[in-house]
Amino acid sequence: MSAELLARAEQRRVEALDSIGRDKLDESEQFFTPIDVAMLMADMLVTEKITSDTVRLLDPGAGSGILTAAAVSKIVEVAPWVRIEVVAVEKDFVVLPQLTATLEDIVATYPQVTYELYNTDFFSFGTQQLDLLVDGEESIEPFDFCIQNPPYAKLAAKSAESLMLKAEGIHAPNLYAGFMAVAHTLLKPNGHMVSITPRSWYNGSYFSKFREFMFSNGCVSAIHTFDSRREVFADTNVLQETIITRTDKRDKIPDEVTISVSRSQAHDIAFHTVPWSSILVSDVLFVPATDKDAEAVAWMNLNAEYELKELPFTVSTGRVVDFRTRDKLVTEPTNTTVPMVYPANFTTASVTHPRDGMKKSQWYVADDKHVDKMLVPPGSYVLTKRFSAKEERRRITAAVYSGDDYAAFDNKTNFFHAGGEGLNPEVAKGLELWLNSSRVDNFFRVFSGHTQVNAGDLKLMPYPSVSQLVALAQTGLEPDFAVKEVFGP
In angstroms, rounded to a whole number, what is the distance separating the alpha carbons of residues 156 and 264? Predict the structure, then answer.
């Protein structure tokens, strides 16, 4: 890479920050990429031999142009003969002087480079390009490479941007997801894109349609994480947890994915490779930082083939918020009360109600059990605690609650049920064993870095089949073996 070109690009990045005003970066949605991170992204982008005479490079939301400078330098390093056509899109006129100067500097340094600069919104540019490609416009060519640091801001469902994206079949709850989706669509087959974004799109129901779109004809081939979120954009005071992802536009998934972690901004980098099966499970992306993490995800991928929505049961958060229903809670049972179950009433695989020594009121007054929406009918339910301490041996603590009467579950619990009714007792027992297993615990620690176990997390996890859960209940054993080999499909 040209050290002089990149040093000048870095200086213009600093000038652009000052032009906008560092106290207005949130408002302008501009968080320009530091030079070290830009070089790291360029290294991730160009990893294979270039055989064509000409390549096209897209930089959406190009800012001061530092990502384009780093990517061009890397392409020239790999293929000195190649002609490079750059398309930079930037709507903020305040940074156009720095962006234009960097693009001109690139051309002066590398005469084989040409560029087009569009001072417009990337969604308008991108959707227009997509329409022309669909119409077969010969003057429009897709891109070999895209490198980007898109803006991070929520997209309202009925905003002009969202409606524009939905017209192209793209559902994106955030600007950065919209940028990624449009840019991905503009790539050639086997084209590559590297994006630095928040990690939030890796999981969660808000981004499920976006992930589905991205993986319909693409895959992740490399991931880079940072030990400290303060380091990435150190001079802009951004504390967002960011991640760099390389995605490829191809139908065939890779055998392995490269995972890297930098101990500082972009230095002291540790690399390892993991099987593809270790990063994608039930439409959720994982970042297995160690071999143990990778093995946990791969095991789950092999042994739990069902999404919760495919099974005859689901999970919900307990319905009773105790401080809002004080008038309904009492310390002694009467002929109008039902059990009120808290996390303190159960430990792993055991529910005790009432429990001696508890300060909370363990009975709920139900004037009409059949119509009170806070209650569940008699039957078997699998409860889990929503909160755990970091020092606890298990993240998930599950237990079967069975009762002959209606019951109330505290809001700090989750409960598995079949359409609001109780579960088959053997299914409940098998599910309890599954959730309390070391395998599921290891997986959940990769899946979720926090100590909360919310119903949303449990809905995103994969599960065995009903028949496997019943067979598991009959053994009474923790599933630390190959479930499919022992219990069948």
Answer: 35
| CA angle (446, 439, 201) in 5-degree steps | 25
pLDDT tens-digit series, residues 73-117: 999 999 999 999 999 999 988 889 999 999 999 999 999 999 999
Which stretch of 7-16, 214-223, 302-311, 423-432 has the lowest confidence by average pLDDT?
Answer: 7-16
351 contact partners, CB below 8 Å, separation of at least 6: 341, 345, 383, 399, 400, 401
Residue with token string 């791969």: 298
Q: Which residues of 447-463 are buried (b: 16+ CB within 10 A; e: fewer)?
A: bbeeeebbbebbbbbbb
Residues of the chain with CATH 3.90.220.10: 310-487
**Could you give the C-alpha distances from 248 to 9, 169, 257, 459, in angstroms and in order?**
27, 19, 12, 28
| DSSP bridge pairs for 340 | 408
Angle (CA) 144-201-392 rounded to 5° is: 135
**Which own/partner contact pairs does 367-370 have at CB distance under 8 Å and 24+ positions apart?**
367/336, 369/338, 369/405, 369/406
Model pTM score: 0.75
- Torsion, CA 326, CA 418, CA 280, CA 40, rounded to 10: -20
The reply to whether CATH 3.40.50.300 applies to domain 3-289 is no
Which residue ranges does the chain devote to CATH 3.40.50.150?
3-289
Q: For 169, which DSSP code?
A: T
Q: How do residues 147-190 score in pLDDT, each as one tens digit?
A: 999 988 888 888 888 988 888 889 899 999 999 999 999 999 99
| Residue 449 tokens, joined | 């870095």
